Amino acid sequence: MAMEHRTTAPAPGLRWTFAHRRGALRIESLVVLAGLVVAMSLSSPVFLNVANIFNVVLATSTIGILALGATYVIGSAGIDLSVGSIMAFAGVIGALLVKTLGLPWWCAIPGCLAAGLLAGWINGIVITYGKIPAFVVTLGMMGVARGVALLITEGQAIYGLPAPLLFLGQGRPFGIPMPAIVFVVAAVLLHLLLAYTRFGRHTLVIGDNERGARAMGVPVRRLRIKIYMLSGLMAGLAGLLTMARVNAGDPTAGMNFELAAITAAIIGGTNLFGGRATVFGTVIGALIMGVLQNGLNLLAIPTFWQQISIGIVLVAAVWVDQLAQKDKE
């Protein structure tokens, strides 16, 4: 009887999670995006120029890829503050392999991805087995990854990458920036992973009710490590594309990108406290962040005001989400 009680107690929460595992685009996010586009179009005559639209797409791609990883981490009731630093670290590793060590250009691809995976694995291991809060662990990794990138480059960017590698960041098949294509492909794959696989379902289950997930037999520790590895992998991918786009492995790349990535995921409908996430909503959130940053640049708004605006948007997104949850209750 005791076993029956333990397995049935979390059922309501688990049913809610499974019923909502695919996530739905929030109408509010689409309205905000449309409103921003209209406002920026009226404020700047060059906003809708083709060249500027490509700038928005490129900015969105980097933040968006980081936000895809953040969607899984936050959906599992975790947090990853290290993705910007891991992105820089991965880019430096890729550039180091092909420029300094003289390896073939394609070695940068697995090099960047492996660097991201390693950092994510370390985050997951320390969080899971060290039983240290994710906030503390990933905050520490933020400093470690950035510090290592600065140390091995002596604070200098590694310039001059091979032309085939630059295509990943600067190529435009059919006129579409290559990073945007990679972002769309990654978003589709991660949507399918979240919505239609056991890994995706269990990610939201442990975010909604970890104790219930354990009672169901979900391997929480192993799963949590994989989630942080996925976040690290996305940071490595973002580092690869950024490195190829700017033709350098820059140890200072990705400053404050973790805040924008988390904001994009939450705006898109991912619950900051776990249990609900939507990849396509994150794509909309990333577009909102890209349009906002691009519009502020066009209006010559100082950078520090841009950081203030991102912080305000993050707080507002969490507040609106909490109000919506209270209304449902």
CATH topology: ABC transporter involved in vitamin B12 uptake, BtuC
Structural class given helices, strands, pairing?
A: mainly alpha
Radius of gyration: 20 Å
Strands of the widest sheet, in order across it, are: 1-2
Return the CATH architecture. Orthogonal Bundle
- Tell me the series of helices and strands, N- to C-terminal: HHHHHHHEHHHHHEHHH
Q: How many separate helices? A: 15
Query: Roughly what fraction of the amino acids lie in strands?
Result: under 5%
Q: Which oligomeric state applies?
A: single chain
Pfam family, one: BPD_transp_2
Transmembrane segments: 30-47, 53-74, 81-97, 103-122, 134-153, 173-194, 227-247, 259-292, 299-320
Membrane topology: Multi-pass membrane protein
Protein name: Ribose/xylose/arabinose/galactoside ABC-type transport system permease subunit
